[in-house]
Amino acid sequence: MSGINQILLESGTNELEIVEFAMGPNKFGINVNKVREIINPVSVVPIPHAHPHILGIMELRGEVLPVISIERTLNTAQSNEPDHEKFIVAEFNQQKFVFHVHNVIQIHRISWSQIEKASDMYQGEDNPVLGIIKMDHSMILMLDFEKIITDINPQAGITIDKMQSLGERERSMKKIVIAEDSPMLRRLLKVTLNEAGFSNLTFFENGSDCLDYLHSAAKKEGSILEKVQIVITDIEMPMMDGHHLTKRIKEDATLKEVPVIIFSSLITDDLRHKGQMVGADAQVSKPEIEELVKMIDVHVK
Question: What is the domain extent for residue 260?
Fold first, then answer.
């Protein structure tokens, strides 16, 4: 498999395509929207004193890209079939990376509802598994690639120091509802939004739970905007993704006035139209937390 022909699904269908890849006997998945191409391994130049998960750098059509060993990241044994090994060239968080894997198997088209949340017994913040897909004869583990990158370079993620450009801010009791499946990112969002002055935050691990909460709030006396001032949602989440959540909010007569900001690593020129199609009020790419705060200020009066 030398490349990926991405199929742009109708926005808001709660579907996705994943690339299934192998690390030893275990199967893992990455969203096709993160994948630019899949190539055979090429020469890698080691970097002195680099993070142990980084194999080095390589050149691809004039770009110098870091090569990350998923083998080292997951602490798995070396491949017994080196001829099958592949490089997955990925792009998210407005950056490109190359992931070295043991084998690439196939592409699956599934619903987000098929992805089960990882058990609390092994989902802790140190675990890179976000969800589990049960297939006919195996299970595919969805990895948190944003965590993998942030573990290597914390400055590549959401950090408090990015708030400094906003200057002094007043405390705000605006009610912000956030749908984000990553435990690490929920913690970082809480810390940074608190720093920005927002302390009335309610988090959900997927779009389905978030939507249930909004429906419950809408049934109470008064306008929904008196109870929830804004919704911030990731795109990639088990059970219900952020595009489908946004679509459901904007199609609901009792919820449609609530501003929705999509805050995702998948905000690119190629994919931005999906958020527009479902009615998102704004779209901000991770990890631009300062831009997210600015958009909250714009859409919540």
Answer: 157-299
pLDDT digit string, tens, across residues 204-250: 999 999 999 999 999 999 999 999 999 999 999 989 999 999 999 99
**Per-residue pLDDT at 4:** 44
Count other Cβ atoms within 10 Å, centred on residue 188: 21
144 with 191, same domain: the answer is no
| Whether residue 203 is found in the same domain as residue 81 | no
Token pair recorded at residue 198: 């927002």
Where are the extended beta strands (E) located within the chain?
Answer: 15-23, 26-31, 35-39, 54-60, 63-69, 86-92, 95-101, 103-111, 115-117, 129-134, 139-143, 176-179, 201-204, 230-233, 260-264, 282-285
Question: What pLDDT score does 128 carry?
Answer: 83
Please identify, among 102, 121, 152, the residue that sits at the C-terminal boundary of a domain.
152
Q: Which of 72-76, 123-127, 144-148 has the lowest mean pLDDT?
A: 123-127
Among 152, 169, 202, the domain-final residue is: 152
**Which pLDDT belongs to residue 125?**
58
Bridge partners for 87 per DSSP: 39, 100
Contacts of 30 (CB under 8 A, 6+ apart): 18, 19, 21, 88, 90, 99, 142, 143, 145
Cα 171 vs. chain centroid, distance in angstroms?
A: 28
Peptide bond into 48 cis (omega under 30): no
pLDDT at 119: 64
Contact 18, 142 (CB under 8 A): yes
DSSP type of residue 61: T
Under 8 Å between Cβ of 79 and 85: yes
Predicted local distance difference test score (pLDDT) of residue 122: 53
